[in-house]
Amino acid sequence: MRKATTLLAIALLGASVPAAAQTIKIGFITSYSGLNGNLGPYMERAVRLYTKLHEKELPRGVKIEFLVRDDTGPNPDKAKQLAQELIVRDKVNLLAGVIFTPNALAIAPLATEAKVPFVIMNAGTSMITTRSPYIARLSFTLWQSCYPLGQWAAKRFKTSYTMVSDFGPGHDCEDAFARAAKENGGQVVGSVRVPLQNPDFVPFIQRVKDAKPDALMVFIPAGKTATAVMKNFSELGLDKAGIKLIGPGDITTDEELPNMGDVALGVITVHHYSAAATRPANKAFVEAWKKEYGANETPNFVAVGAYDGAALIVEAIKQQKGKLDPDKTMEIFKHWKDANSPRGPISIDPETRDIIQPEYLREVKKVNGQLANVELETLSQAEKDPWKELQKKK
Ligand code: PHB
Predict the structure, then answer these.
(1) The whole model's pTM is what?
(2) Which protein residues touch ligand 1 with a CB less than 6 Å away?
């Protein structure tokens, strides 16, 4: 009885206190060092830009604070430790970020246990979202790009070879491409998996050259490794041997194009985002990015995943007037859509909590003297993760 009275007193006291300024804490885990450590800053800059442009829409007195942590690249132990500290010690309302699949998988059970919604802004292996009902993914899956790529490629090339990084997203891309190619009468004559860290591409690419396929499909994590592939591909003369280099957009990520140089010209990819896209929402995004970070800076697909992820978070905060309940937050996430993302119309699939988005066929070309991923065609207006669609049919 005494306890009940005390609780009631506290409740009444709480009710009479005017709403204090409130901070929504977001545990933001990304990669600033190690493999692809250049990608973290794209993610962080994107969430900061979105928040800056939209903070006036937040309920009065509500602020967003990002608690930024470096997971040091594909390092699940580190990612788990950081997420644990953010949940237990810092009492974050949400988790967000994460470039790498193994890190997202390590965080997933903690999100479930603590009921902390986790907004994935990159990691793209399809099954990640099945590991926690508190995950929503605003980035992509490799199936979303590699499956339509395989369908397209089968109609142009009789034979292809695949080369992927030996971890989740690489395996997904290899499977998706091979399945789509086969379904459409194409033939995958060989496939090779290269180590995620420090691969020496020369022996693998030589093997591909000897097999003489019409096309080589490559997935490696976006960044400097892609430049190494391009250079080896050209140095070993695969382009001169008439082999076409194709892949998901990770291999021609916008910020790496200047480092790749002309060897990237003509490479065909499928992806959801190109900084060179001419739709008005993208032009406005790129302009805002340059205004904030400098005329020579360009966003990339990691940036757009984080930008839209921040939009999702701001919407959940607005709808709940600054008081976040994890289950309500997930309900809001599941029904979120944006007809005007820089990548085109997007929404969250309420069944899978994965993004539905357009996929574009692109070619690296020179635009005003600079290499760009020029969108040629929209292969799908609203691509749902094909892997999950196939699971349903099983
Ligand atoms: C991933 O680990 O899921 C990942 C990393 C880099 C990419 C794509 C996917 O470019």
Answers:
(1) 0.94
(2) 99-101, 123-125, 169, 221-222, 250
